[in-house]
Structure formats: C-alpha cells, structure tokens
Amino acid sequence: MNHKAFKQLLKSYLDDSCTDEERKIIDQWYELLGNENMDLGAREMDEVESRLWSKLQTASREKSVVLPERKRFRMSWKYAAAACLFALVLLSGITLWFGKNRQTQAAGTLVDTKITQGFLEQSNTGSTPKTIQLEDGSTVTIYAGSTLAYPKHFAAGKREVYLQGDAFFDISKNASRPFFVYSNNVVTQVLGTSFDVRGKNGQVEVAVKTGRVAVYENKDQVTLDEVQQKSNGVIITPNQKVTYYQLERHFITSIVDQPVPVIKGEKNAEANFNYNETPLYKVLRDLEETYELEIVLENDKIRNCLFTGDLTVQTLFNKLEGICLVFNATYEIKGTKILLKAVKDCP
Predict the structure, then answer these.
(1) Which domains are delineated in the chain?
(2) If exposure means fewest CB atoms within 10 Å of the residue's CB, which of 128, 168, 182, 324 is most exposed?
(3) Residue 82: which residues within 8 A CB-CB, separation 6 or more?
(4) How far apart are the first and last CA of the chain?
(5) Spans of the chain below 50 pLDDT
(6) Residues 331, 302: contact at Cβ < 8 Å?
(7) Residues 273, 319 contacting (CB under 8 angstroms)
(8) pLDDT in tens, 185-242
C-alpha cells in the first residue's frame, strides 16, 4: 500500500464510508499506537496519519513484509490471523516441551540426589534387561536406559528405592516393612507383589502382575491441598494398571494390555476352559476367578444361555471374542471392568 492509498482509507473511515472489513483493519492499526478507541476528530487526523504510517512502515521493514494493496485486504487479514494462530500454537508447544523437559530433569535429580547421599546405583546402559537382587531378597529387572538408586541396607520400618525409567519389581513379602518405589512425582507402595513401573513422556504407568499396590502422588514433590490428600491415588490389583499424567496430575485406571492367569499358591494351574452346553454365567465366573477381573453382563437375559467350545489355550481377549461370536455380542473395557454387550437373547 502506498501513502496515497493509505490516506484515502483513513479518510473513508472518518467519513463513515468504509466497509466493515476496512474498519476492523483500521482499528487493528490504531492499536499499534497504544490507544483504546478510535474516536478521532479532524484535527487529530494529520498526527494519527503520520504516526500510523511510520509504525506500519517500521513493522514492514522489520518483518520483511510488503504492505498489500487495498483490494487484497481481506485475504491479507486472513493470512495474518493464521500466522498469529500458528505463532500461538508454536509458543504453546515450546512451553509444553520445556514443561515436560523440566519434569524429566526433576526425576533425574531425585535419583541423582539419592546417589549423592550414599545410595547404591544400578544403571542399564545396554539393550537387554538387567536383573539385580536387593538386600531383602526382592529382585528388580531394570530395562534399557533406566537407573535405580537403592540403599545397601533398608530402614527398619520401610524399604525405599528410586527409579528413573522402566523396571519390573518382584517384591518379597514383609507386612511390617512396606516397599516404596519413587518414580517422578509418583509413589508405588506394596507389601509383597510383582509389578511393572514405566516412566516416559510425562507419564508413569504401573501395572500389577500379582498382589495389590497403592499408587499416589509424592507429597514431597508436589503440593497437595486437604481434599487432594484425602483422595490421593488409587489401589490396583492383578491385571490392572494405572497411568499417571504428570502435567494434568491425574490417574487413569485400566486393564493391562495382555492379562494373564493370576498365580495362586505355589503352582499356577490354569482352569480348564473346555465347555459343553455350560451356562454363560459359569463361563464368565471362571474367567473372573482366573484373571481376577470383573466382567459385567449388560443383558442379564443371556446369563443362562448355553455355551459350547474349548477356550483353554487362548488369551483372555481371544476367549471373550469366541464368546461374543457365539452370542452375537461385543465387549468393551470400562476402566478396570469388562462390559459384555448382547443385543439379542439366547441364539
């Protein structure tokens, strides 16, 4: 835009003969001067015109932007809005990345601090899992790129270790000395069980194989108000997992990706899933007892429907698929429960 066209646009504005789009553009330009309204008198026109033109010319030189002709105002304004939006999204992304980066650094600092305090260190710099045995007989399998800090001798009343990365824990039972795993802002507390802890991308995931674990925010790492302290964390059992989202600071519970039969006693004898005209509710009860997961039947009318088939060698989800095929049903994962949905009654 040349100076003559610029003056003509301002004149149209004062005469109230410009379009709504042109009025918006003038208002945006005027904001460059730091004023809050566009109430101009004729005597102010010359001063405002000079100041606006100077501002726009400076901005143009600094950004290497060529001011468009009047006929292209509509398109140029859309491009400008898109550019502003892109810049805002980019800035948000940078802020989010730095936020996650700071949290990752904080997790590393927690482990590093314990090492400087005299804790032993085990790091896995290789590509295969590395298993170590702790003083109490517990074993920890550290995955690639992960570090564990632990004391040579545990305290009398509790056992504490600090993890950066991923590891599988098989903890010896000792009701008088609970076991604590600190990972980022999350604490996993157990008495005797086996479970996975994985931390990456601002998340910490804990999946239970045997036993029960409590997972909650570390009050030494985050600020908790009175309400948060009372409702802090979740308890999960075999074949369940919980994911903690560090930025949002909330827990999401679900079922592990591949549920396995829960070990009972010294021997793990999987139930026989070979059925011949067996009521559906008994089949589902076997699954619940074997995998320790709750299965909810949405249509109670099919609970006594008869099922025939051998599901013994299949995974839990394949077993469910076989059942659904027979009864024209579907299943969904709802948190830590399985919902079996059948539209029709017995086939």
Answers:
(1) 3-67 (no CATH), 111-255 (2.60.120.1440), 274-342 (3.55.50.30)
(2) 128
(3) none
(4) 77
(5) 35-38, 40, 59-107
(6) no
(7) yes
(8) 899 999 779 999 999 888 999 999 999 999 998 887 778 776 676 677 899 999 999 9
Coil vs helix vs strand at 248: coil
**Using one digit for the tens of pLDDT, what is the confidence trace for 47-67?**
655 655 565 555 444 444 444
120, containing H or E segment:
strand 120-123
What pTM does this model have?
0.64
Structure tokens at 115: 């090492």
H-assigned helices in 2-126: 3-14, 20-31, 42-63, 73-116
Q: Is 209 exposed, middle or buried (0-12, 13-18, 19+ CB in 10 A)?
A: middle
CB neighbour class for 253 (10 Å; exposed up to 12, middle 13-18, buried from 19): middle
* Strand, helix or coil for residue 47: helix
Could you tell me where the beta strands, DSSP code E, fall in 130-287? 130-133, 139-142, 147-150, 159-164, 166-170, 179-183, 186-190, 194-200, 203-210, 213-217, 234-236, 240-245, 250-255, 274-279
pLDDT at 10: 66
Q: Are strands 166-170 and 194-200 parallel, antiparallel or unpaired?
A: antiparallel
Q: What is the pLDDT of residue 88?
A: 42
CA 222 to chain centre: 17
Residues 6+ apart with CB under 8 A from 113: none
The b/e string for 176-199 (b: 16+ C-beta within 10 A; e otherwise) is: ebbbebbbbbbbbbbbbbbbbbbb
CA 76/CA 195 separation, integer angstroms: 58
